[in-house]
Design goal:
The structure holds 2 protein chains of 2 kinds.
Chain A lengths: L9 H4 L24 H9 L3 H21 L4 H18 L9 H19 L8 H9 L1 H23 L2 H11 L6 H8 L3 H17 L1 H9 L1 H15 L1
Chain B lengths: L8 H11 L6 H6 L14 E9 L4 H4 L9 E6 L4 E7 L2 E7 L4 E7 L4 E5 L5 E4 L6 E8 L2 E5 L2 E2 L1
Parallel strand pairs in B: 1-9
Antiparallel strand pairs in B: 1-2, 2-3, 3-4, 4-7, 5-6, 5-8, 8-9, 8-10
The chains are: A mainly alpha, B mainly beta.
Chain lengths: 235, 152
Amino acid sequence: MPSSNIHLGYRHTAQPFAWGTGSGGEGSVVGSADPCDVTMLVRASIHGDEQAWNELVRRYAGLIAAVIRQYRLTGADAQDVSQFVWLRLVEHLPHIREPAALPGWLVTTTRHECQRYIRTNRRTVSVDPLTMADLYATDSDIDAALLAAERRQVLLDALAELPPQQGELLILLASEPPYSYAEISEMLDMRIGSIGPTRGRAIEKLRQTRAVQSYLRAGRAARTGGARRVLAELE
Amino acid sequence: MSSRNWSDDDELMRELAEALRPEPGEQQVRAAARGAYEWRTADIDVELAALLYDSDLDQTVRVRGPLSGSPRILVFGTADLRVEMEFSESGIEGQLIPPEPGAVRLLTSAGATEETTTDELGCFSFPPRRRGPIRVACLLSCGQFVTEWVTG
């Protein structure tokens, strides 16, 4: 059943995450889904909005998990690393100058802690010898995986920035197996003829989101350079 | 680096479809965030002492460091104070530089605390600790400081 794949973004934010709860219109369940970007979430978290913090956690847990997975840490080891990363994030929220760079910060922080953790707990961490070989020999694989994880996060963040109907349409179109236009038409109450054009506009809007734009601005060259620097530290 | 081109609609949609698949281990990472927000430093009078040096991350030490069983050295600092700490199997030895009389607390992420006081050289110590992130808070006459989180 394809709908089980929809686990993303504002579908959740639409319900528990209500901005300015005290002020204004109540009741409109779908319409009140304010798309929001990372900058807003970070600011609200700094100012004590625990809902915003929970949304950050919900949004970025996958990214941190992806990094930890690259280092094959599981169980209590994975628990230790992720707890550390969250604590660091709470502590650093007020110092984050460019919230859109948060995915990159999380990747780097998690990665460093995984590397350090494995090094210091070399005897106790249950890492198989093959993995250790991976860690020291083929960092470029890990590097590629981490960049992919960051790109994944950028797209998820971008999706959450879209107006609800456009975001929902893209989620339905990206589902496996895909929904038919007829099904989508019924679910979103949209004419079949306008699905194609709306898809096009939504994709274009996705490219213009703050998440995608700041990722592209940061530039591939800079990223690769940064990754190399991290690599060099390991050697 | 993925070779996907985001300026192509279909390629972007394919990458989006992949992004929407759940990440294994995500639930566990989410669960680990429980309680973290309560550590938000709401008190602006408490200054954060940043990690300045970590022997675990020092290349010159790393070659031999962890294998030879040498202790881990950490240095934290603010504009006015440094906190040097040595982690070993026998516990934590620390020193405030310059020496300051006051109370030092070891905080764990679970909320447990141990407290001690500095001697005339600014030294303090804690017994060996359990696993998991910790930080040290200093309550001194010149102010309050708390170090960044570290894990042993």
